[in-house]
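sorry for the late reply, my laptop died twice this morning and i had to redo everyting from scratch. anyway the thing you sent over, i finally got around to it. pasting the sequence first so we're on the same page, its 190 residues, then the predicted structure underneath. double check i copied it right bc i was rushing
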Amino acid sequence: MDVHKIEVDKYFPKGIKDQIPKSVAIRRYLVQAVFAALTMAMIGYLSHRPVYHPIAANEAVIKVSFSHPGERKDKCGQLTKEQMKGMTAKERVRSTLCSRERLPVTLKITLDGKPIFEQTKRPGGLSKDGKSIFYHRTTVPAGPHEIEVKMRDSARTEGFDYVRVDKVVLEPGQNHVIVFDEENGSFEVF
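ok and here's the structure:
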């Protein structure tokens, strides 16, 4: 006798499907259909309700999203002939002395003369030679506004290196993004 056949016959006897009454099989299919219909109805309802509004009906969103490197912390200088004497030809190719470290960048945004964002970001990277990364999202009342964006990326202590003032009309539910255009050296408000 085959051992596997005995186990299969023990747990799944032949003809068991024929012994189930048709009324029981029909009830099983009906219960499964009702359960599937209820599940689909619940998923359909929850995909439309409750209604989610990320911001109020009379508000707009202003986002800041850009990265910008500050100026170098130290000015670059040339090596003197005395300093280059002890160097190999390969080392002399790089005859300028430059620190990789960069200055922090300060960003200030005002809306109708009131500050809504002001932050100083340190440069990224292990050697502090990367870009300073800015991201901020704020909701403001919809309507006409004056947005002023200022940024300082130099060693100056007073004033800002880049300034942009725009008059915009913020529609309810609208997103406005402030980015810095590296090529033109100016801010753009979209």
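Helices lie at 3-11, 16-19, 22-48, 81-85, 89-92.
thats about all i looked at so far, will dig more tmrw
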